[in-house]
Amino acid sequence: MLKTFAVIGDPIDHSLSPTIHNAAFRELGLECTYIAYRISKDDLGVEVDSLKKIKISGFNVTIPHKISMLKFLDEMDDNCKTIGATNTILNENGYLKGYNTDMDGFLEPIKKRNMVIRDSSVLLLGAGGAARAVIAGMSKEKASNVTIVNRTTEHSLELEKFSQSLGLDAEVKTIEDMNELNADYNFIINSSSLGLKNETNIIPTKIINEETVVYDIVYKPVNTELIKESKKKNAQIIYGYEMLLSQAIRSFEIWLKQEAPYDVMKKAILGGFA
């Protein structure tokens, strides 16, 4: 019997998740398919009901639904409860269990490079569901402090409280404050959608140097304006597709209860940029 999986969000056209998962299904000879499904903020509740009616086996959740999806879950894993956001849903006969694979997916590329998070200073752009996963990960690995910058100050203040609740010192800056930043940040992380449409980078390059780790979770385009400008400053770069791959593998294994074909999924991602 064919199993169907999906990614829901808005916008969704840029998503490489169908490419990654369908390549994995083909490699393992699984009767599964994966689609991208655009759902607006206002339609989330109705569309989640529709997904349950068609007996979808599971789905990923992306911008802007990672936090709002929580209220439609029947159960959450510990990461979901801690982070307050979900990106992976398992549907078992209409019973929806939410997982968060973003935190571990975010941390893995850092750990693979043996980069040290403990006692580090972090600049974080964005205050949505992905930002919460970043904060949780940096707190878990004992970062020292985080400066949060976001278009909506209300969301920044909520994230500041969340950071402090996890024992991570936090402060909020507005986008207008950006040019006044002079701190020596060890990590500069973009967890917002800025760059998805080739927008201009708003992080001042004067705070980027060869010691800075610049991590942009936007994966398409691969080289966002932030990445391009950071390369000119000889910064250490972590690409968004690396987090995408890490969290996708975890999602696959939650749904299918078997090991994901890492090399095939990585090749599918990189081929998606061709």
Describe this structure in words.
The chain is of the alpha/beta class and 274 residues long. The chain has 2 domains: 3-100 and 242-271, Rossmann fold (3-Layer(aba) Sandwich), CATH 3.40.50; 103-238, NAD(P)-binding Rossmann-like Domain (Rossmann fold), CATH 3.40.50. It is built from 9 helices and 12 strands. The strands form 2 sheets. Strands 2-1-3-5-6-4 form a 6-stranded mixed sheet. Strands 9-8-7-10-11-12 form a 6-stranded parallel sheet, with helices on both faces. The radius of gyration is 18 Å and the shape is globular. The model has no long low-confidence stretch (mean pLDDT 94).
Please give the radius of gyration in angstroms.
18 Å
Number of strands: 12
Taking pLDDT < 50 over at least 5 consecutive residues as the criterion, the unreliable ranges are none
> How many structural domains in the coordinates?
2
The major β-sheet equals: 6 strands, mixed
Find the structural class using helix and strand composition: alpha/beta
How many helices? The count is 9
Summarize the structure.
This protein is of the alpha/beta class and 274 residues long.
What features would you highlight for this structure?
274 residues; alpha/beta; Rossmann fold; 9 helices; 12 strands; 36% helix
